From TrEMBL:
<keyword id="KW-0378">Hydrolase</keyword>
<feature type="domain" description="Metallo-beta-lactamase">
    <location>
        <begin position="18"/>
        <end position="206"/>
    </location>
</feature>
<protein>
    <submittedName>
        <fullName>MBL fold metallo-hydrolase</fullName>
    </submittedName>
</protein>
<dbReference type="InterPro" id="IPR036866">
    <property type="entry name" value="RibonucZ/Hydroxyglut_hydro"/>
</dbReference>
<dbReference type="Pfam" id="PF12706">
    <property type="entry name" value="Lactamase_B_2"/>
</dbReference>
<dbReference type="InterPro" id="IPR001279">
    <property type="entry name" value="Metallo-B-lactamas"/>
</dbReference>
<dbReference type="InterPro" id="IPR044094">
    <property type="entry name" value="AtsA-like_MBL-fold"/>
</dbReference>
């Protein structure tokens, strides 16, 4: 089972960190979690164009997590996909997708008539709205929803993946909550979002003190994420969804390591974790990935 971080950013535009998205691959199966800005380019760079996806999972309906969904659908069609996209997301996903496709219907109708491609099945989207007890099996890959707390967002999920005796948990966007902690207990790898509060000063005309407090309140603070991983006893902690994207990586790592003694990895776009082989690759670097359970 492999996890590739396609986008480790947030709504703030960054040249280094694209919008939130992760790719999970196992055997011949490929699952995309979230469709942040630039996801189609990152998928191509990771060697898995949208044409090859078996499922698209949406953690919640915030714009930074789904802004490139239409681009994903159309680009997969251009890549020769000949089957509908399977989209799984929280309640409201069907309405969103129907509205999205209706918005682009005139453009699509013109493209279909003019381009004369062999199939239009890739332009069909089959939506399944998930609940906290949702599960999906794709070959040897087992997936389950994890209800998290991103209030005032009403429906928000993380996801747990299991294959060949290994377990991976993705937090989605959430403040620390019992549901995520329970799901992550004993996982080989926890991929968790992080909000670096000290690097979000008040800037007149950009954000107020209330802005910083409110945004931080429904995310996981950098002073909390290590404690969460330690309580859950995960084997390895990786960080993503950096707010702000250009945070001080060394300072963040030092802060989290005060609370979690296991391996901590500051994620980067196109970093790949292979839980089966126990390796981490990033560019030309290949590292052994220790997956022993940490002490809770």
């Amino acid at each position: 089972m492999q996890l590739t971080l396609l986008g480790t950013g947030c709504p703030v535009v960054s040249l280094e960190r694209y919008g939130p998205a992760q790719l999970i691959r196992h055997d011949s199966r490929a699952v995309l979690v979230d469709c942040g800005s630039g996801v189609t380019q990152r998928l191509l760079a990771a060697g898995c164009p949208g044409r090859d996806l078996d499922a698209v999972l949406l953690t919640h309906l915030h714009s930074d997590h789904l802004v490139d969904l239409y681009q994903l659908i159309v680009s997969a069609w251009h890549q020769g996909r000949a089957r509908p996209q399977q989209v799984y997301g929280p309640p409201g996903t069907r309405t969103y997708v129907e509205g999205l496709m209706a918005l682009w219907r005139q453009e699509l109708t013109q493209r279909i008539a003019h381009e004369k491609r062999p199939s239009t099945e890739a332009l069909e989207v089959e939506v399944t709205e998930i609940t906290p007890d949702w599960r999906l099996a794709l070959g040897g890959l087992e997936i389950e929803a994890v209800e998290v707390d991103h209030r005032p967002v009403r429906h928000a999920f993380g996801f747990a993946f299991a294959a060949e005796g290994r377990r991976l948990v993705l937090s989605g966007d959430t403040r620390p909550c019992p549901g995520l902690e329970a799901a992550a207990r004993g996982a080989d790898l926890l991929l968790n979002e992080v909000f670096v509060h000290r690097e979000m000063p008040v800037i007149e005309g950009v954000r107020s003190a209330e802005t910083v407090e409110n945004v931080g309140a429904y995310h996981t603070l950098s002073c909390e994420v290590g404690k969460l991983a330690a309580r859950a006893g995960v084997g390895c902690l990786a960080l993503t969804h950096f707010v702000p994207p250009a945070c001080d990586r060394a300072a963040l790592l030092a802060e989290v390591r005060q609370d979690f003694t296991g391996p901590v990895i500051v994620g980067e776009d196109l970093m790949t974790f292979d839980l089966t082989a126990g390796t981490l690759t990033y560019g030309q670097a290949h590292l052994s990935l220790p997956l022993e359970r940490a002490s809770a």
